[in-house]
């Protein structure tokens, strides 16, 4: 009986050793190659979707940014009973307004003004309210060029008279592109500002361009 018990213990010990060895066995070369191949296929499928997701987020973020500044200008104009203007910059990183430009790709300023639709005057202390830097990876185009102004009633003025304006925001495919694109996968955003000054955003129709 003792001998039998010893032999059984011996075999059970071998069984435990064999199981431990099986558990610690690594990948074979074939298994590793198959795993890498599957990962490569999944990456190829996922990359375009992730890229489009990031471009959509950029367009939405920039549309929210310029809409926020427009709403701020309107609110401040009504609250202070004064003129607040928004102008596209001629050169990024400066305070020089583009007098007739429709592109906000270089950034924009929000400032108080003595009368509607005049450029920012840096000599007027305290007039600058906000300065937005150049938007990365997106293009922003307005339907009316130059300075946009909100009066004390919150109305949007262009050329001194109430007028509605639309702003198109599109994600660029590459940083060197001059203008973004509007596609089904990555639609642009259209910001509509009514003569009353109220702003509303919507997805840009697929038939519309970004300029």
Automatic annotation (TrEMBL):
<comment type="similarity">
    <text>Belongs to the GSP H family.</text>
</comment>
<dbReference type="Pfam" id="PF07963">
    <property type="entry name" value="N_methyl"/>
</dbReference>
<protein>
    <recommendedName>
        <fullName>Type II secretion system protein H</fullName>
    </recommendedName>
</protein>
<dbReference type="InterPro" id="IPR012902">
    <property type="entry name" value="N_methyl_site"/>
</dbReference>
<keyword id="KW-0488">Methylation</keyword>
<feature type="domain" description="General secretion pathway GspH">
    <location>
        <begin position="63"/>
        <end position="174"/>
    </location>
</feature>
<dbReference type="Pfam" id="PF12019">
    <property type="entry name" value="GspH"/>
</dbReference>
<dbReference type="InterPro" id="IPR045584">
    <property type="entry name" value="Pilin-like"/>
</dbReference>
<keyword id="KW-1133">Transmembrane helix</keyword>
<keyword id="KW-0472">Membrane</keyword>
<keyword id="KW-1003">Cell membrane</keyword>
<keyword id="KW-0997">Cell inner membrane</keyword>
<feature type="transmembrane region" description="Helical">
    <location>
        <begin position="27"/>
        <end position="48"/>
    </location>
</feature>
<dbReference type="InterPro" id="IPR022346">
    <property type="entry name" value="T2SS_GspH"/>
</dbReference>
<keyword id="KW-0812">Transmembrane</keyword>
